[in-house]
Amino acid sequence: MSQEVKVPTLGESVTEATIGEWLKQPGDPVKVDEPIASLETDKVAIEVPSPVAGVMGAYVAQVGATVLVGAVIATIEDDVAPGEATSVAPREKPAPKEPAPAAAPAVAKEAPSESALTLSPAVRRAVLEHGVDPSSIKGSGRDGRLTKEDVLTAAEAKAKGPSTSSGRAEEVSTSTALAEPVEARSTGERREERVKMTRMRQTIAKRLKIAQDTAALLTTFNDVDMTAVIEAREKFKDTFAKKHGIKLGFMSFFAKAACLALKDIPAVNAQIDGEEIVYFDYVDISVAVSAPGGLVVPVVRDADSKSFAQIEKDIAGFGKRAKDGTLTMEDMKGGTFTISNGGVFGGLMSTPIINPPQSAVLGLHRIEDRPVVRDGQIVIRPMMYIALSYDHRLIDGREAVTALKTIKEAIEDPMRMLIDL
User: Fold this and answer.
1) Burial class (CB in 10 A: 0-12, 13-18, 19+), 338
2) Predicted local confidence at residue 92, as pLDDT
3) Of 273, 396, 413, 420, which is the active-site residue?
4) Which of left, alpha, beta for 207 (phi over 0: left; psi -120 to 50: alpha)?
5) Torsion on CA atoms 324, 330, 332, 336, rounded to nearest 10
6) Is the pTM of this model over 0.85?
7) I need a surface site. Which of 21, 140, 154, 299 has the fewest CB within 10 A?
8) Torsions phi, psi of 107, nearest 5?
9) Secondary structure (DSSP) of 56-79
10) Which helix (H) or strand (E) holds 380?
């Protein structure tokens, strides 16, 4: 007897998704609530749990297919005896339990080309995120295909360096040596690969283009002396971490500074809705976070009334869940203003694009020592360029410049955030 697996409810106004990856192969044992597939929606990836325990049955839809909420995508079969389980799995290639050493080079030689041509979306994202060469990794999946765990293990081994002596690291090193693409290097072969855009990437592309086509975008810049914030972090980091269980970062300072500016200049925290302007008496800050599938913007709600510690906890939680792929639609719903930190990737300056229907976004960049003049003397200070992109239909240049200047002053003198100046 089989049990149907259906697409679960995906969130408000979301009616369809794309199958991003099958986490279980036909014939694999499955536990109750164990994830068997990953669905990609416009904003997040959602895992589909098994409704019953049993054996993975047939796929009704394949990777890349668009499925509606409530549609059947697979079946779960009743448990079978161990001796019968192998007959359920289609296309399974028989292999000896202890392969002869002479067969190893041939397997290693096939693995790179096979895995390179059949990378699943999750594996591809892991490869891009960790910067590893998929052709140098020995796949442990069916038919020598790469799994996400293979990529993570290889990335960990790469980070530890050549001195790593664990069994798995040795396996990766050996497969690298055996799988050297000699033919491609000697013949100068060049390859192209076409990969369908994920639903999330398609949505990101559409929203950014809509922002450019609709809003009258303009960006104003300033620079910030980070000395006071760096000194405050250094002075209180141990006490802060001990009391709150979280590190004191820069984002909480900029979030609180932005709240001051948005309260003083309400238009920067407003939105255009048709022929009306919507003003908010609260500040919900969307924080741009890099995830394997693309940029996501979870929302720190009521940031104006939260403490530094709570803001840091919210942001750290969003970052972890973004990497794990466990962010929900509710996490990214709403938002009145966005902060994007390109400095973590080394960016010196940028013109960020607003997150519609919001009207402004603050861009942060890397901190670097630069010569500046203080009291008639040239001194070295840790400086950061900051940028405010805004919709000129709603926000005038004077308001944008004033808001950015308020943020600059609050960062350079954090006491302003305590006494609301």
Assistant:
1) buried
2) 45
3) 396
4) alpha
5) -150
6) no
7) 140
8) -65, -45
9) EEEESS-TT-EEETT-EEEEEEPP
10) strand 377-391
Assess whether the region 2-88 and the region 204-418 belong to the same CATH fold: no
Query: 204-418 — its CATH code?
Result: 3.30.559.10
Whether residue 244 lies in the annotated active site = no
362-400: pLDDT as tens digits: 999 999 999 999 999 999 999 999 999 999 999 999 999
DSSP code of residue 326: -
User: What is the distance between the alpha carbons of residues 283 and 414, in angstroms, rounded to a whole number?
Assistant: 19
Domain positions in the chain are: 2-88, 101-187, 204-418
List the catalytic residue out of 78, 392, 413, 420: 392
DSSP output for 101-158: GGGHHHHHHHHHHHHHHS--HHHHHHHHHHT--GGGS---SGGG---HHHHHHHHHHH
Q: Tell me: the pLDDT tens digits for 25-49? A: 888 888 888 888 888 776 677 788 8
Which residues, 6 or more positions from 57, have their beta carbon under 8 angstroms from its beta carbon? 2, 26, 74, 75, 76, 77, 88
CA 73 from centroid of its chain's CA atoms: 26
Q: How far apart are the first and last CA of the chain?
A: 69
Apex 410 CA angle, 406 and 414, nearest 5: 170
Is 392 tagged catalytic?
yes
